[in-house]
Amino acid sequence: MKGQNMLLKGAFWIGLYVMIAVLPLVVVAIGPTPPGREFWREFSVALGFAGLSMLAMQFIITARFSTVSAPYGLDVVLQFHRLISLVAFTFVLVHPIILFIIEPETIRLLNVFEAPWRARFAVLATLGLLVVVVTSLWRRRLGLSYEAWRAIHGWTAVAIVGFGLLHAIGVGHYLSLWWKQVLWAAMGFAVIFMLFYVRSLKPLVILRRKPWRVVSAEKLQGDSWAVRLEPDGHEGFRFIPGQFAWIKFGDSILYREHPFSISNSAEDERQVEFTIKEAGDFTERIGRHARPGTKAYIDGPRGVFSPDRFRAPGYVLVGGGIGISPLIGILRTLADRGFTGDLLLMYANKDEDSITYRDELERLESMLNLKVVHALNEPGDDWQGETGFIDREMLEKYLPEERDERGYFICGPPPMMNAVRDALVELDVPPDQIHMEYFQLVD
Ligand SMILES: Cc1cc2nc3c(=O)[nH]c(=O)nc-3n(C[C@H](O)[C@H](O)[C@H](O)COP(=O)(O)OP(=O)(O)OC[C@H]3O[C@@H](n4cnc5c(N)ncnc54)[C@H](O)[C@@H]3O)c2cc1C
Q: Has residue 175 got a pLDDT over 70?
């Protein structure tokens, strides 16, 4: 029932998206329209309006509204955001190209020094779009840090929609009526408000009302830290195992938040724990950012990577490296709940020193109906367990007989996750029983 509900919600949001994307075309068709214009000109204008409205909607898609992302998961929503931005970019580019073909003299509008403002706005919006697409597709190659990219992305996106609106209002063929201008201007403000809400209002006002405090930060094997927090003067929140949250440590106004999976049991009433791997400029200094007593702000819980959303009589968990963090949360919760179904954890690491939670996993094996299979890429001479990548052969060796009735949760480096998913599908596991949590939202 829950799955069906999610499907309906998912279909609802897609339907709403398509409706809003074509709404501008309906609006521009109402009231006076320029007479005698040929099909290709009208088609080009339609592409421009649809492209602009799709770009405006990108702000809503990325505003982290749980109801929007719940049916799909954040990674799928962001994947949609990325793909749809390429479609919108194509619409916006094709819009003037058609005009240049049917009326070649309009090419002179590209000369921003002499062109009227309405054309300058169009050129600026298109250049902005180019900046957003190039910096998003090739961020690493351009040497941009995540934070620099995020700032460029957000503010350029606002500029694109602003310039796009000014262009549409400036041309005015379809927006001569005052209410249409008000409608489009309102859309522009809504878009800017959405960004302001996510980047400023929510962190500085809403989250600030519910601070958290670091209780402990313990260094673990595998260059990771277990950071525990408790609510400071409020009730905290309830979460389901496998979810994640955005965290900002410290009280500075500077806004720098990172997503981490919640790795303690969902049955813990008062605290949350995150297992954080030293991976980059922020996480390498996590021991300093998360000193006991430090204030923190948590935006969550979020995500759908959870056996509570996809119930099954038993579960197969496949983790690589720090991908163990939501999986240990799931196992801890199942242990607290006295779960009796069969559980398999296949856990890939580089070498024995990289295995996080090794002792605890042994303890969980004795408490649950759980088998833990470690696979090492660079095993030492005395290693008795599995070696190499988790592949089809290794999965086939350990999967339970009733593999089509189990729930599968995979988290680790993306190439590993994709290879394991493909191998599971080859082994006749129904794809809708395979759930994945990607730790890389952009790259
Ligand atoms: C849903 C989810 C759950 C995660 N759970 C965990 C976890 O439990 N434990 C863990 O160690 N890591 C987790 N991560 C990954 C973690 O967020 C990044 O490793 C961390 O933000 C890297 O920051 P950095 O500045 O140290 O590294 P950098 O070298 O700056 O970044 C490394 C990569 O991390 C990503 N990243 C960096 N900053 C951010 C940010 N502010 N927001 C989103 N992505 C960012 C980018 O893809 C970047 O390329 C999770 C990520 C996601 C999306």
A: no
